[in-house]
Amino acid sequence: MAMLDPRTIGAHIRMKLPTLSKLEAQIVDNIIARNEFSENTPIKDIAEENHVSEAMIVKTAKKLDFSGYRELRANLALYRQQEVSKMFQDISPEDSIEKLIDKVFHNSIQALEETMAILDPAQIKRSTALLCQADRLLFFGVGGSAQIASDLAHKLLRIGISAEVFSDTHMMLMAASLCDHDSAVLAVSHSGRTADVIEAVKLARSNGARSVVLTNYGQSPLCEYADAVLTSTSQGASILGENAASRIAMLNILDVLYVAIAERDLKKAEENLSRTQAAVTAKRVH
What we know:
It is a single chain. Helix content is 55%, strand content 9%. It is α/β, with parallel strands linked by helices. The protein folds into two domains: 6-85, Arc Repressor Mutant, subunit A (Orthogonal Bundle); 118-280, 3-Layer(aba) Sandwich (Rossmann fold), CATH 3.40.50.10490. It is globular.
């Protein structure tokens, strides 16, 4: 692998972590957590610190898609020089309110910066086309992911496009069973490993539907059933978890998708937006 875009290196490594064994993931975590790490850090030091062979370090680097330890070291050292790599800070119970504000906001900013760097415009274009060509839109998600899907459904309704959001397992499967070639599914799953969502998307596609997947892991099982994949990225904080910053990034991806869909027929979108805004104006207190 050649040198990656420096801003995407951290995201690239994080997205590969679920494909590693427990020991391999631990090695990577230890390398990332190492304060003194540079292009001069010997492989011998890393092997000794992790109580493994040098061959194990090379194997782990290759599973991250690098040619070996040297390429991993060069890319990671370059990433550490980027301002975005320094934004993330884990949450501590001892943090003051001022420190919590700083950490939470900067963690989200990092997720946005790195997600913007890895977001593939071709996948946005493909996702837009798939959703615009469908006569019926179905959005699948469980828990917080369903709320993210609902946000896009709300925005689309404002411009005259209806989408059904399903978060219940049985409802997702029933909706998927009624899909056909005129249907399109948007599946939201942070991990890409939520069994209920995978099962529903698989069933929908077997009935002819096209699918767009929004996830934090581009090589997750859910992506095997995707016609287009949109990927966010974020680091996990001990209290907030990984999903918190990822949610912000996912919402921004769907905002891009919403605008791209609206621009397909901007005049109609603006007309419908005026109508839907007028419909709720009376509900505001003046």
